[in-house]
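Deliverable D4.2, example record:
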Amino acid sequence: MNPRELVHHALALLLAKDMTGFAGLWSEQGVLEFPFAAPGYPPRIEGRAAIEEYLRDYPALLDIRAIPEPTVHQSTDPEVVIAEFEASGIVVATGRDYRLRYIAVITVRDGEIQHYRDYWSPLAAAEAMGGLDTLTTAFGGSHA
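Output generated by the structure prediction step:
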């Protein structure tokens, strides 16, 4: 699977709430990185097993229902793509609407994600989730 196909497959797994399958796209030593991580939020998760554990409860926090028209740009490096997408759904705990734009720089080698840098806005996510404490507790406190 080339990098572009892998990104579309990853988004389909996210919509299907298949976190095990989603995490399984990373190599054994793969990295999930959050350059704009909020205080108390893990800035880097290393290894497929740790990524799977981190993502395990994601569907209990956010019910992502749509990722309309994702765009995947090929960089000059054939192993690196840049994905732009918007995820929308519901914050499970509050029933609030969730809508957030993401940009990810993804390195794929031998059909596996080696490095995924997730450039999302912690302030926008906190607002959608109901506050920074809620965001940190949901994604930082139980998974760090």
